[in-house]
Write a structure and sequence with these properties.
By secondary structure, the chain is an alpha/beta fold. It is built from twelve helices and 14 strands. Strand 11 and strand 12 form a beta hairpin. The structure holds nicotinamide-adenine-dinucleotide. Nicotinamide-adenine-dinucleotide binds next to helix 4.
Length: about 350
């Protein structure tokens, strides 16, 4: 297969970690007979320096013309970088929000995996972490409370603020379909998280999820209230496969879930639209504290590239091969600084990429 990949290396450690992900993709192309073309684009701080704005129309158009976008991370030190003296709409992060919007990316996919080799970094009790876990949180990204009408006003001398939580059935259906599609490529279980005992939006959410579930008889599904889900995540995270939820619940639960893996440098993520198109990036930021030192952990970006193979290109064997290589490298004891522990072998960002390539 031939695929065109838009590449946004971004700022800070972005160029270092994306370079390693491309090494891995090149090895996959070589092994499985594919051709990947890469087009380098600017977004974030580097685009401000080159173009005066964090995102140009050209970057949007080139991303739209690609089969998928691979991104590093954007932004700088928010206290010292001159980018943060600019008005908010001209700062690096505004570019990312505008790009997600322009590409219609409504579903955020965050796998949270506790690799057994790194279970020591998990803050949960050993009897829980020993089992490991491998879940994917799918968060609705463009609706709900964060996008509803809001205002602050004085009523009878009392300052009052209002935010509106709104979802229509089409917004719920498209993310539910995405969740069941993804579950078909994983362990065929969906947990839909809501607050249906209180909220109308949640009752509609449940109804639509149940309708969608009928089209996926192989997938087991359940509903869970969000407060219970927050507890279950720390009590028994191994019970989850795909979790699907609305924007604000997803925001909070996905941070809770990433915390229990213990390592930001290992967490991949993707944002997708209705088709198979997606933007793939690590969950972490641009880590200005270690940028340019060849110290960053490239695994999150490499696992994001594996998600691109699986979900945008339907290259299941290829994605499995990347994930297996990451496991083998960890088994062999190679560690970047952020996941280093006693008795392991410390490697640089580029050495980690080389080792993963070797194991494919
Ligand atoms: P951060 O994730 O960049 O860094 C937090 C800590 O995690 C730092 O100690 C960093 O060294 C470490 N870290 C992060 N990724 C790592 C990796 N791959 N390997 C090893 N260590 C890693 O968060 P921050 O410091 O709050 O933000 C820095 C900049 O990144 C800010 O400008 C912020 O706005 C931006 N940011 C961008 C994105 C994105 O591009 N999607 C996401 C979050 C933050």
């Amino acid at each position: 297969m031939t695929k065109n990949i838009a590449v946004i290396k971004g700022d800070g450690i972005g160029p270092e970690i994306v370079t390693e992900a491309i090494k891995v993709l090149d090895r996959i192309a070589e092994k499985y007979g594919h051709t990947f073309y890469y087009e380098q684009l600017l977004m974030g701080g580097c685009s401000i320096d080159a173009n005066g704005v964090p995102l140009t129309d050209e970057t949007i158009e080139r991303c739209k013309a690609s089969d998928a976008v691979l991104m590093g991370s954007i932004g700088g030190n928010t206290s010292t970088s001159p980018w943060y003296k600019l008005p908010p709409q001209l700062r690096p992060e505004a570019g990312l929000l505008a790009l997600r919007k322009a590409l219609g990316l409504f579903a955020n996919l965050r796998p949270c995996v506790l690799f057994p080799q790194l279970s020591g970094a998990c803050p949960l009790k050993e009897e829980i972490s020993a089992k490991g876990f491998d879940m994917l949180i799918m968060r609705e990204l463009t609706g709900g409370l964060y996008f509803g009408e809001r205002r602050t006003e004085e009523i009878n001398g009392v300052i009052t603020a209002v935010d509106t939580l709104k979802y229509d059935e089409n917004e719920i259906r498209r993310i539910a379909v995405k969740a069941f599609d993804v579950a078909m490529k994983r362990n065929k279980k969906v947990t839909s998280v809501d607050k249906a005992n209180v909220l109308d939006t949640s009752r509609l959410w449940r109804k639509v999820v149940e309708e969608v579930a009928k089209d996926y008889p192989e997938v087991k599904y359940e509903h869970m209230l969000v407060d219970n889900c927050a507890m279950q995540l720390v009590k028994d995270p191994a019970q989850f496969d795909v979790m699907v939820t609305e924007n604000m619940f997803g925001d909070i639960l996905s941070d809770e879930a990433s915390m229990i893996t213990g390592s930001i440098g290992m967490l991949a993520s993707a944002s997708m639209n209705e088709s198979k198109f997606g933007l793939y990036e690590p969950s972490g930021g641009s880590a200005p504290d270690i940028a340019g030192q060849n110290k960053a952990n490239p695994i999150a970006t490499i696992l994001s590239a594996a998600m691109m193979l699986r979900y945008s290109f339907d290259m299941t064997a290829e994605a499995d091969a990347v994930e297996a290589a990451v496991n083998k490298v960890l088994d062999a004891g190679y560690r970047t600084g952020d996941i280093m522990s006693e008795g392991m072998r410390l490697v640089s960002c580029s050495e980690m990429g080389d080792k993963i390539v070797e194991f494919i």
